[in-house]
Write a structure and sequence with these properties.
The structure holds two protein chains of two kinds. Chain A is built from 13 helices and nine strands. Chain A is mainly α. The relative contact order of chain A is 0.13. In chain B, strands 1, 4, 5, 6, 7 and 13 form a six-stranded mixed beta sheet that branches. Chain B is globular. Chain B is built from 14 helices and 13 strands. In chain B, helix 3 (about 55-70) runs antiparallel to helix 13 (about 290-300) and helix 9 crosses helix 13 (about 290-300). Chain B is about 40% helix and about 20% strand. Chain B folds into two domains: about 25-120 and about 225-330, Periplasmic binding protein-like II (D-Maltodextrin-Binding Protein, domain 2), CATH 3.40.190.10; about 125-220, D-Maltodextrin-Binding Protein, domain 2, CATH 3.40.190. Classes of the chains: A mainly alpha, B alpha/beta. At the A-B interface, helix 2 and helix 12 of A face helix 1, helix 4, helix 6 and strand 10 of B.
């Protein structure tokens, strides 16, 4: 028998890898790593083997070939002579458009209904509850299809606007036509426009050519300059307030600084609105907001807005009632209490789950295919994949795009979160 | 030691690769069912009836193949597919044969690694418009909104046609024929374009078919045929010759009514005898028994019977034989000799 009192100098035993806490975690990590690497290797090997069995290879060359199909909604120049890569780009921009519009509208709806649900008015808070529960408890796809169907079935077709006694007429002083193909709204035009700059990269980015309107750049630059001046005026007003205790009235100065240069610029450029007009089968002129875009945008916003409403309600409820009472005790009015005391603290709770909702909305926009909205899933991941037979490459690229977009949104929102979160000093 | 592990891994990888390309015929026999990809609903070509039983001109091809291979024309699992996913479903092995009014093209046959086993309907792309629109030619369609199924040859033809004629259009992409029908009838698009047979089939289901016209222009050649995966030639042969057997049967006057009688004993026509297995052993050459063609023909009838029953002039779809008449009648339908 050996005594346990004097520990014998033992060498390393294999069982220590499992029973000795010093080594166990390393053992588990090594085993897990080996298993994961083996699984990945098996997946890759299996893919290669099956591709070989089908006689296919893995290449992205198809992106440079002529696409041959048309896309209705395109934010950049595109026709059927362009490449599959260009078609993918058109789809990407359409995805970004609907995701961006959706995030904005969903946030607005969410904040409004989140606050309304806290209202002391019974009817208002119940109505907000009906909205929230109705939208978040029915699958998004059904809402998309339902809204699209209503917009298509209940609105007149362009030919109803024609004739002596047309069945339908345009709204808002003949400026807007709402049809079952979408809404046609006036578009901004410039009589003495400055034209476009053509941006034409070379090499593998050759598909990334696009035109930028000089008018738009000039207008944006003017706006930025005006806002900078407004900021200067406000800083000066604050200085005066700090020195004398009286804040000079600045609102009309600021308004003038913003409006006057833009108005002068627009007048100089010969700004006018191009109205949509019946021509042939459809309306021509104006901007065509297709039903597929409107339906997808509305459905995504209403659905995600319902979730955001709950997040906003939770965020406001999370701020202790003592904060409100303290603010009132200091003599702050209710709206300033909300703006200066409650909301800044509620934002800390609201922002992190809000990021998830933005990500959900962006990824859910891939349901666009159901109503024929030409997003990246429909162009690159749909028609291109189908016409070229490059399923693996196409779907991997679409996946990669959504991954990068989601990471970008997360990064941006996390940066914003860092700015509004509680500063502990 | 290390080397042997590598070799073992390679062997395993080789085995998985081998199993991926196992014979479709063996798979179908082991399963006892043929997996057949069809359109998600096109009257006359593939549609479930009131009892949920699939029927139609494309469906009949699958039933004939199932009858030839498994001896049971009902041993078919029909998989409704949209135009977008059909090739992926075939390439991945989800279905054994695709009979979904699919156009035979060069790149599909080669680059997409498909094998077309023949043509069961010679078609061309047409346009359908409401009569009230007053359009008489496809060239009058400048600026029109066009409903189009995505991922099809018609989509590419449409782009080429409008480009070649220097007129513009607005495409509304849709997934299925049913969806197209709904959009077209709601007036969300002025025009619906697809294969002329599909237009006729769709129009036949309208409440007032007479209010819609199919424009005279046929802007493309659309030879529609069943498809199998590239690389499994034994299976391709079975599918191809089953289709040819149906075509030859019409030419030789073998119908579902008289096929049993003709197959009972050798007749005076040696080609009928070879087809029906009373002479020679054609069945064995494609890995089936002698009675394969008898079962295929008995399943629904010969090519002509299938045509008349599903899409012919006496059906609501009312398609004339036209290009799809036997070569002896001035059409293009022609089966190579059974010899």
């Amino acid at each position: 028998m050996t005594t346990l009192t004097d520990t014998p100098k033992q060498g390393f035993r294999l069982s220590q890898l499992i029973y000795d806490t010093r080594y166990r975690s390393i053992t588990i990590q090594v085993i897990a790593t080996v298993l994961i690497v083996a699984a990945l290797w098996w997946l890759a090997r299996n893919t290669v083997a099956n591709l070989t069995a089908l006689g296919k290879d893995f290449t992205l060359e198809f992106l440079g070939n002529r696409s041959g199909y048309d896309i209705n909604q395109r934010l950049i120049a595109y026709d059927s002579n362009a490449t599959h890569g260009r078609a993918a780009l058109v789809g990407i921009l359409n995805t970004l458009l609907v995701a961006g519009l959706g995030c904005v509208l969903a946030t607005i709806l969410g904040v409004i209904f989140g606050v309304l649900r806290l209202s002391k008015n019974w009817i208002v808070s119940r109505l907000a509850a009906v909205y929230v529960e109705g939208f978040r408890n029915v699958p998004l796809l059904l809402w998309i299809i339902a809204i699209f169907a209503v917009m298509t079935e209940s609105t007149p077709s362009p030919k109803d606007f024609r004739g002596e006694n047309p069945v339908a007429s345009m709204a808002l002083a003949d400026n807007v036509a709402i049809t079952n193909r979408g809404a046609y709204i006036p578009e901004p035009l410039f009589a003495n426009g400055l034209g476009d700059v053509e941006i034409k990269p070379g090499g593998i980015f050759a598909d990334l050519y696009f035109n930028v309107s000089i008018d738009l750049i000039v207008i944006l630059l003017t706006l930025v300059a005006s806002l900078l001046v407004v900021k200067l005026v406000n800083t000066r007003a604050a200085d005066i307030q700090n020195a004398t205790g009286v804040r000079p009235t600045t609102w009309w100065v600021n308004l003038l600084i913003i409006v006057a240069p833009i108005a002068a610029l627009l007048w100089g450029l010969g700004f006018y609105l191009g109205k949509p007009e019946l021509s042939g089968f459809n309306f021509a002129g104006g901007t065509h907001l297709r039903n597929s875009l409107l339906a997808l945008w509305l459905a995504l916003s209403l659905y995600t807005g319902a979730f955001i409403a709950e997040i906003v309600r939770g965020g406001i409820n999370a701020v202790s009632k003592g904060q409100t009472e303290a603010a009132f005790a200091l003599g702050l009015r209710p709206n300033r209490t909300m703006r200066l005391v409650i909301l800044p603290q509620a934002l800390r709770v609201i922002i992190p789950p809000l990021i998830s909702q933005f990500l959900n909305l962006t990824k859910n926009s891939s349901l666009a295919i159901a109503i024929g909205y030409m997003d990246v899933r429909s162009t690159l991941g749909g028609i291109t994949v189908n016409q070229t037979g490059r399923e693996l490459e196409g779907i991997l690229l679409v996946g990669l795009f959504y991954l990068l977009l989601s990471l970008a949104i997360s990064t941006g929102m996390n940066w914003f979160n860092d700015r509004v979160k509680l500063k502990e000093r | 030691m290390k080397k042997s592990i590598m070799l073992g891994a390679l062997a395993v990888a080789g085995l998985t690769a081998a199993s991926a390309s196992a014979s479709t015929l063996d798979d179908v026999k082991a399963r006892g069912k043929l997996n057949c990809g069809v359109s998600s609903g096109l009257t006359g070509f593939s549609q479930p009836d009131a009892n949920g039983v699939w029927e139609g001109f494309d469906v009949a091809v699958c039933r004939a193949v199932a009858a030839a291979v498994l001896g049971d024309s009902t041993a078919v699992e029909f998989v409704p597919l949209t135009t977008q996913v059909r090739f992926t479903a075939l390439a991945s092995g989800e279905i054994d044969i695709l009979a979904r009014n699919t156009t035979w093209t060069f790149s599909r046959d080669t680059d997409l690694k498909l094998d077309f086993i023949g043509v069961n309907y010679y078609d061309g792309q047409g346009f359908m418009v409401p009569k009230s629109l007053g359009v008489t030619s496809a060239k009058d369609l400048d600026g029109a909104t066009v409903c189009i199924q995505t991922g099809t040859t018609t989509e590419l033809n449409l782009a080429d046609f409008f480009r070649a004629n220097n007129i513009s259009y607005e495409p509304i992409p849709i997934e299925t024929n049913a969806e197209a029908q709904q959009q077209y009838l709601a007036g969300a698009c002025d025009v619906y374009t697809t294969d002329a047979s599909g237009l006729a089939a769709t129009r036949a289901t309208f409440e007032a078919p007479g209010d819609h016209v199919i424009l005279p222009e046929i802007i493309s050649k659309e030879p529609l045929g069943p498809v199998v995966r590239h690389g499994d030639n034994e299976w391709g042969d079975i599918a191809m010759w089953t289709l040819n057997a149906l075509i030859a049967a019409e030419e030789l006057g073998v119908t579902s009514a008289n096929v049993e009688e003709l197959a009972a004993a050798a007749t005076t026509n040696p080609e009928i005898n070879r087809l029906l297995g009373t002479e020679g052993d054609l069945g064995a050459m494609i890995g089936l028994d002698a009675q394969w063609a008898v079962r295929a023909i008995a399943a629904g009838g010969n090519y002509g019977e299938l045509f008349e029953k599903n899409i012919g002039v006496n059906t609501p779809i009312g398609l004339a034989r036209g290009l799809n008449a036997q070569w002896t009648e001035g059409g293009l339908i022609y089966a190579p000799p059974f010899r």
